[in-house]
Amino acid sequence: MIIEKLRQIWKARDLRNKILFVLGMLVIFRLVSHIPVPGVDTAALKQLFGSNQVLGLMDLFSGGGMSNFSIVMMGVGPYITSSIIFQLLGMIVPKIEEMQKEESGRQKITMWTRWATVPLAVMQAYAMINLLQRSSRNIITSVNSLDLLMMVVTVTVGTMFLMWLGELISEKKIGNGISLIIFAGIIAALPQVLSQIFISFDKSQLFTLIGFAAIAVVTVVGVVIINEGQRNIPVQYARQIRGGRTSGGSNTHLPLRVNMAGVIPIIFAISIIMFPSMVAQFFLSAKTAWIANFSQWTIDIFQNQLFYGIIYFLLVFAFTYFYTEIVFHPDQIAENLQKQGGFIPGIRPGRHTAEYLGDTTHKIILVGALFLGLIAVLPLVMRYFTGIQSLAIGGTSLLIVVSVVIDTVKQIKSQMTMREYDGV
């Protein structure tokens, strides 16, 4: 069945060309992610990222470019941050909220998002380079102002290049370009992880490896179930008689997804959790003793796995509810249903429908929030029970990989379905 589907996809010339184009763009991304910025000790840099959980998460979303200090070291992070900012502004600024409802308005917001990516990339690149300069590992050799400027400009251009690649991929409608770039970075790191496991393999770890494989399979199944899980709210449309014609009277449903927020809460949590440590790095050499001591204490406490795990879990849990409030609007849905003559059986239209949808969503999201929180801290749990660093399952990585694969497969299927309707 699968082989037959692949044959059908390959025979469809336009679809085959789109897939090959996307694969080509991902290959280009992987090539540029291995072009390093001069003046950096990459061996010491990899050791730093391997020993720091927060930096490891940042490296995940850069596709490994950060640990290589490549020209795309910031990945698509600044673009994602810019997108999140404008989504939040849509909740605060009524004008932006209205623009989000119209095609021309969404195009303007997309253009503003691109512009805002530039200063965000400059600030993040400068902060990261400063952080590495202040590191005790001598990662970056002494650089003058011109060298620093060239580094920041190079990294910023790299981010804009990846943003452009992502948009080119998205135009082919074979998946979301930004998500596929992150996906490619995660998959590219898989051979190195497997090689570390085989190199350090010991017969006494056989049962641990079997248990690890079983947990990995269960995790993937859980990600699929939660990602695809939804509750269908029944909706009925009243019959309307206009000019002797009867319309409406149909029964349908309103799907409420268990995981409406996707991986956005994890991205939010990473942004928040890395902020105190990055700021503290700038004050380690402060002349005031209590400031220097407090900075060192902040860095140390975030290196504590228990504290880090608890804070990370709570942030992901809270941001899941927060982001769901951004993307799901019960009042608008209730208003649209009422205008179209639809209603939920047993629930009055208008305010009562909005309250019912809000309460139901909060109950469903509880499962999604707990799941995302557990997925986020899963590497720490595995590391605690196995004691093997290389066996830490990347729960976030699995979530992204599975989500991207599901979305890409759906888009390819929809294009195949359109071809069948068109008789191609």
Per the CATH scheme, the topology name of the largest domain is Preprotein translocase SecY subunit
* Radius of gyration (Å): 24 Å
Number of structurally distinct domains: 2
Strand content: 5-15%
CATH class of the largest domain: Mainly Alpha
* Main sheet specs: 3 strands, antiparallel
* Distance, first to last CA: 20 Å
Silhouette: globular
- CATH H level, superfamily name of the largest domain: SecY subunit domain
Total strand count, please?
5
The average pLDDT is 78
Spatial order of strands in the largest sheet: 4-1-5
Q: In the CATH classification, which architecture of the largest domain applies?
A: Orthogonal Bundle
How many DSSP helices?
A: 16
Give a nutshell description of this structure.
The chain is 72% helix and 5% strand. The protein has helices at 2-11, 13-32, 42-51, 53-61, 77-92, 94-99, 103-133, 145-171, 177-199, 206-228, 264-281, 289-303, 305-327, 330-339, 351-386, 395-422, and strands spanning 230-237, 240-242, 245-247, 251-257, 342-343. The longest helix has 36 residues, at 351-386.
Could you explain the architecture of this structure?
The chain folds into two domains: 14-199, SecY subunit domain (Preprotein translocase SecY subunit, Orthogonal Bundle), CATH 1.10.3370.10; 208-393, SecY subunit domain (Preprotein translocase SecY subunit, Orthogonal Bundle). It has helices at 2-11, 13-32, 42-51, 53-61, 77-92, 94-99, 103-133, 145-171, 177-199, 206-228, 264-281, 289-303, 305-327, 330-339, 351-386, 395-422, and strands at residues 230-237, 240-242, 245-247, 251-257, 342-343. 72% of the residues lie in helices and 5% in strands. By secondary structure, the protein is mainly α. Helix 2 (13-32) runs antiparallel to helix 8 (145-171), helix 5 crosses helix 7 and helix 13 runs antiparallel to helix 15 (351-386). It starts with a helix and ends with a helix. Strand 2 and strand 3 form a beta hairpin. The chain is built from 16 helices and five strands. The longest helix is centred in the C-terminal third of the chain and has 36 residues, at 351-386.
